Amino acid sequence: MPTFGEIPYGLEDCKVAPITGTSTVGTLVDVPGVRSVSFNVEADSDELEGDNQVISKVRKAPSLSGSVELGKINLAAIAVLRGVTASTTGSTPNSITTIQEPDTASNAWFQLVGQAPDTESTGSAYRVTLNKLISTSGPDETMEVNSWNTPTIDFEGVGIGGYLLKREQYETKTAISA
Q1: 82 phi and psi, to 5 degrees?
Q2: Any domain includes 120
Q3: Taking residues 124-151, what's their average pLDDT?
Q4: How many other CB atoms sit within 10 Å of the CB of residue 120?
Q5: Is residue 5 scored above 70 in pLDDT?
Q6: Counted domains in the chain
Q7: What is the dihedral of CA 64, 22, 109, 19, to 10 degrees?
Q8: Whole-model pTM?
């Protein structure tokens, strides 16, 4: 088994893409200045008891939850994460990009891909693709004197084609692309 991409450090690149229909992944949008992507694969189980003991146990289907923290405000990326549209009006130097946060529930799905460089071998990487996510809260922001505003968006995920996520080790690091 190859030994590249085994000791990832940090988060070097992140992109998101809208999902339309059941599983059609759209165009990737860069998430510049991404600070963190955290995710958890979890599954409940159920026990059957009888004769004062556990006689059977079943594991339920796994699910995915997590969050992404942004170091830069990029409305194009936030629009994908929230399932809304970013629009730009005006022209340079007076352009304004806007997203409106609706007061209704959104069922917009997205895919997230994050990549970390390997610390042991030069030029390799570890990449994770979270297949189908929906934001459950956020972006949570704090605008405060002498403090960075680093929005966080929480999400939950389901599978596409029977898979929640994909983990890959790249012998030669490549840019995340469609």
Answers
A1: -100, -10
A2: yes
A3: 94
A4: 12
A5: no
A6: 1
A7: 120
A8: 0.87
